[in-house]
Design brief:
The complex is a heterodimer of chains A (about 325) and B (about 400).
Chain A lengths: L2 E3 H15 L3 E5 L14 H4 L4 E3 L4 H13 L3 E5 L10 H7 L3 H4 L9 E6 L14 H5 L5 E3 L4 H13 L4 E6 L2 H4 L1 E3 L13 E4 L4 E5 L2 H15 L4 E5 L2 E3 L3 H11 L2 E8 L4 H12 L9 E5 L9 H7 L3 H13 L1
Parallel strand pairs in A: 2-3, 2-4, 4-5, 5-7, 6-7, 10-11, 10-13, 13-14
Antiparallel strand pairs in A: 1-8, 6-12, 9-11
Chain B lengths: L2 E3 L9 E7 L6 E2 L4 E6 L4 E5 L4 E6 L6 E3 L3 E6 L14 H12 L20 H10 L17 H10 L8 H6 L14 H16 L2 E9 L1 H14 L6 H14 L5 E4 L2 E4 L5 E3 L1 E3 L2 E3 L2 E2 L7 H16 L13 E4 L19 E5 L3 E7 L3 E15 L5 H16 L5
Parallel strand pairs in B: 12-16, 16-17
Antiparallel strand pairs in B: 1-8, 2-4, 2-7, 3-6, 4-5, 6-8, 9-19, 10-11, 12-15, 13-14, 17-19, 18-19
Helix pairs in contact in B: 2-3, 7-8, 7-9
The chains are: A alpha/beta (about 325), B alpha+beta (about 400).
Chain lengths: ~325, ~400
């Protein structure tokens, strides 16, 4: 099998899910034509009537998906850019997340919301944001954020089969950038499992999405200098694989958490708190976070976007400081 | 008023050091509650209170070494009155006010801006120090501002058991000494080691001999038993068992030469030399001849762990009849140990080395070979007997039976 991009892996998973189960259908903006990133390309022709265009109304998209899931369908909703998902915040957090609780377990919502997120694409303030922290905060929602094509495919299939609402985050910068030979590649099939992608004794890096790849690049550079990093690909943010997070922290005693979302209240704060609470006696340096600055949007200008985004250079610099501590 | 004195902590102990007072004047004291930590040349113990009452005057300061029988403190018990000493102020009240001044607010820790972080320890470092009983001030730091990092502690632990000389890499970062040398204060343990080994070397005529044994089969047996027990096993328990069995045939080595007598023992009280953070200690495995391999392994693990953690009891270090030293653990292939007098023999297990040896008449094979060295008290034994013991030991090691 040839190398497959993140985008192709997503499309493969959608195709497989639809072929496997007639209850699966796709709804979203421009999805019949293939969507702006071409993730659903060809599916409308292959599965007539099961790829449905919607108005530009995110709240309705998720609302329809909730209703369909409640009546036994397996909807996969696409939110064209994660930046716009907040229009559906109420549907997701006030309805979908508590459906099972509210019905005392009588009803489940097997629904998936796919959405491209993240910066580094010169998308400016409405096409670059990170939204994971808002939704990972909400009990009852699952939030998945893979990094490698094989995991995109296996975890998207797992999300479709999951009886709970799952927000499936696809980093748009990696869509065509990251390619992988699927044959023999590790593919996580369980939501809630992290993976140690690289092992080293000096410090531990935590990341997901584009930042995971930046961390791996930084780790490669650091290894040449004699600094060995453990890199943890979180894969799922909620439910978080706390054991894997803690095990990796205890192993090195020095941790650097990386995400492009803004610092304050970002998902890294949860990881930091978890480690401080449960791995305190193993820490050999202050917990370090490298995140986007507390600025409302990611800027449009390339230089300013570069200033905003963490990258391999900034990660390596922070890691060097930690290693020397 | 009842007075607590420095107790006799062991047959040959003549003095003790008050390491730390656990009760301050004025503190209520229950019966058997620890009053202070006492360090002797053999062990550290907590001194239980023989009385119930309130701590009165303390006559010995922390860190002071005094002979056995020296008064340490007074306990004010119900029915006794504070001592006659002061008329103006009772000792307890005086002590309490003195203590209060000790507890006045301390200045905050040194500012971080100073850059010196040699004594700023992270949770990981403190945890390791506690776990392994390490004095962190002895470890040179390689971190920011001279901070002792977790890796420094791990490296120190890995190196422990070898000669305590500074490694070149750490020497490079430690501050250059003003003089050509520095004076290392001798702990009571260190002083005792020095004194006893000098005396043994001076007073006991020691002879030395060595045999080599083929332990290829023994290693195989060890692996089988380890798999059966589902635990990791070193050669040490097997060696200890072979020593016990060899002593059955040569009991004259299981003896102590003391007070002009040669005292031969029926029980094998096996001393194990352990490199502990404070210096060499030799905890004793009593009646080792009664234990199975599993029992030996477990008992050895326990003793060694407690020795390293500084948690030995007095009974753990008394009554040894012979000592074994696992010198192979730090890579030695031959050594000439000094006797742990008054014992008359010390035997070492050196490192197992796989090498070509002649087997049968004219074949060469790769075998796992190990040297076993014996130092013995030539007053008590002749070379013939020592050699016979080693020959038996060699036979037991080379033809092990699962037992």
């Amino acid at each position: 099998m040839a190398e497959v991009s993140v985008l192709e892996a997503v499309r493969m998973a959608l195709d497989e899910a639809m072929a496997r189960d007639e209850r699966v259908f796709i709804l979203g903006e421009d999805v019949e034509a293939g969507g702006v990133f071409r993730a659903t390309e060809g599916l409308a022709a292959k599965y007539p009537g099961r790829v449905i265009d919607t108005p530009l109304a995110e709240s309705s998209i998720v609302g329809i998906a909730i209703g369909a899931a409640h009546y036994g369908m397996r909807p996969i909703a696409e939110i064209q850019f994660a930046d716009f998902i907040h229009a559906a915040f109420d549907q997701l957090c006030s309805e979908a997340s508590r459906w099972c609780y509210r019905t005392k377990g009588d009803a489940w919502l097997p629904l998936v919301v796919r959405t491209p997120w993240g910066g580094g694409v010169h998308g400016g303030q409405h096409h670059s944001q990170s939204i994971e922290a808002f939704y990972a905060h909400m009990p009852g929602l699952k939030v998945v954020a893979p990094s490698f094509p094989a995991d995109y495919r296996s975890l998207l299939l797992a999300a479709v089969e999951d009886p709970n609402p799952v927000i499936f985050l696809e980093h748009k910068r990696t869509y065509r950038l990251i390619r992988q030979e699927l044959n023999g590649a590790p593919a996580e099939t369980r939501i809630g499992k992290a993976r140690v992608t690289r092992r080293g004794g000096d410090l531990t890096l935590y990341a997901y999405g584009l930042m995971l790849h930046e961390c791996l690049a930084a780790a490669e550079e650091l290894a040449a200098e004699g600094i060995e990093c453990t890199v943890v690909d979180l894969l799922t943010l909620r439910p978080l694989d706390t054991e894997a997070v803690l095990e990796a922290a205890r192993a090195t005693g020095k941790v650097l958490i990386v995400h492009e979302d803004t610092l304050t209240g970002g998902f890294g704060a949860e990881i930091a708190a978890l480690i401080a609470e449960h791995a305190f006696e193993y820490l050999d340096a202050p917990i370090r976070r490298l995140c986007g600055p507390d600025i409302p949007p990611i800027p449009y200008h390339p230089a300013m976007e570069g200033f905003y985004m963490p990258d391999r250079r900034k990660i390596a610099a922070a890691a060097r400081e930690l290693a020397a501590y | 008023m009842p007075v607590v004195t420095m107790p006799q902590l062991g047959e040959s102990v003549t003095e003790g050091t008050v390491l730390r007072w656990l009760k301050q004047p004025g503190d209520p004291v229950a019966l058997d509650e620890p009053l202070c930590e006492v360090e002797t040349e053999k062990v550290n113990v907590e001194l239980p209170s023989p009385f119930e009452g309130v701590m009165g005057r303390q006559f010995v300061a922390q860190g002071e070494t005094v002979p056995v029988g020296t008064p340490l403190c007074e306990i004010v018990t119900a029915g006794t009155r504070p001592s006659e000493a002061d008329s103006s102020e009772t000792p307890v009240a005086a002590a309490v006010s003195a203590r209060a001044s000790v507890e006045s607010p301390r200045p905050s820790p040194e500012p971080t801006a100073a850059g010196d972080r040699r004594r700023r320890y992270t949770p990981a470092v403190l945890r390791l120090a506690r776990l392994h009983g390490i004095d962190l001030e002895r470890i040179p730091g390689t971190g920011l501002g001279g901070r002792v990092t977790r890796k420094d502690v791990e490296a120190y632990l890995a190196a422990r058991g070898e000669a305590p000389s500074a490694t070149p890499s750490t020497a490079a970062v430690s501050p250059a000494p003003a003089a050509a040398y520095e004076v290392v204060p001798l702990s009571p343990t260190r002083r005792t080691i020095a004194e006893r080994l000098s005396r043994a070397a001076r007073e006991v005529p020691q002879a030395w001999t060595m045999v080599e044994a083929d332990v290829t089969e023994l290693l195989r047996l060890r692996d089988t038993i380890a798999a059966k027990l589902g635990r990791h096993l070193t050669l040490l328990p097997f060696f200890a068992q072979a020593v016990c069995r060899a002593l059955r045939e040569h009991p004259n080595l299981n003896a102590r030469f003391e007070e002009g007598e040669l005292r031969r023992f029926r029980d094998v009280n096996l001393g194990i030399a352990v490199a502990a953070p404070g210096g060499l200690v030799v905890p004793v495995l009593h009646r080792a001849q009664e234990l199975s391999i599993e029992g030996l392994a477990r008992a050895l693990d326990d003793l060694i762990e407690r020795a390293r953690g500084g948690r030995l009891q007095l009974s753990d270090v008394q009554g040894g009849t012979i000592t074994v030293n696992n010198t192979g653990a730090f890579g030695s292939i031959a050594s000439r140990p000094i006797l742990n007098a008054p014992e008359v023999a010390i035997v070492t297990l050196e490192r197992v080395v796989r090498r070509p040896v002649v087997v049968g008449d004219d074949a060469i094979a790769v075998r796992a070979m190990v040297n076993v060295c014996l130092t013995f008290d030539h007053r008590a034994l002749d070379g013939h007997e020592a050699g016979a013991f080693l020959a038996t030991l060699k036979t037991l090691l080379e033809a092990p039976a699962e037992r």
